[in-house]
UniProtKB/TrEMBL annotation:
<dbReference type="InterPro" id="IPR038717">
    <property type="entry name" value="Tc1-like_DDE_dom"/>
</dbReference>
<dbReference type="Pfam" id="PF13358">
    <property type="entry name" value="DDE_3"/>
</dbReference>
<dbReference type="InterPro" id="IPR036397">
    <property type="entry name" value="RNaseH_sf"/>
</dbReference>
<protein>
    <recommendedName>
        <fullName>Tc1-like transposase DDE domain-containing protein</fullName>
    </recommendedName>
</protein>
<feature type="domain" description="Tc1-like transposase DDE">
    <location>
        <begin position="2"/>
        <end position="91"/>
    </location>
</feature>
Length: 130
C-alpha cells in the first residue's frame, strides 16, 4: 500500500517504538529519516513529539546517508537473478533476501556513519563515494 503519514505512524508505533529500549536501553538516541512526505508531515512531527523521540534535523537536497539505502542496495544485488512471477512472489523473495542480511552487516553500515559524514563535510555537500 501507499505509505502516507497515518501508515508511517502505524509502522513507527508497532516496529520502531519498541526497538530503542532493546537496542539502547536507557541511552539517548536520535531517530534518522529523510524528508519523504509521510516523514515530514505535521502529524508525524506531532507523533514524534508526543512520544518524546528526537529526530535528526534533515536538510532538503542533502546527500542520502541513511544506511537503509545501502541495505536496500544489498537486497537488490542479492535479488538480481530472482524472477518472481507476481506481487506475492516478489514480496516473499524480498522477505527471504532481507532475512539473510546479518546484524554484522547492519553494524558495519552504522559504524561507517562518522566516515560518511566527514566525507560529505569535506565535499561541502557534493556527492561522495558513499
Amino acid at each position: 500500500s501507499k505509505v502516507n503519514a497515518a501508515v508511517y505512524q502505524d509502522v513507527l508505533e508497532h516496529f520502531m517504538l519498541p526497538a530503542p529500549d532493546q537496542l539502547y536501553g536507557d541511552a539517548d538516541f536520535i531517530f534518522q529519516q529523510d524528508l519523504a512526505p509521510a516523514h515530514s508531515a505535521k502529524a508525524t512531527s506531532t507523533w514524534f513529539k508526543d512520544h518524546g523521540i528526537p529526530v535528526l534535523n534533515w536538510p532538503a537536497n542533502s546527500p542520502d546517508l541513511n544506511p537503509i539505502e545501502n541495505l536496500w542496495g544489498i537486497v537488490k544485488r542479492k535479488m538480481r537473478n530472482a524472477r518472481p512471477n507476481n506481487a506475492e512472489e516478489l514480496k516473499a523473495t524480498i522477505r527471504a533476501t532481507w532475512a539473510v542480511i546479518t546484524p554484522e552487516q547492519c553494524h558495519r553500515l552504522i559504524d561507517s556513519m562518522p566516515r560518511r559524514i566527514a566525507a560529505v563535510i569535506q565535499a561541502k555537500g557534493a556527492p561522495t563515494k558513499y
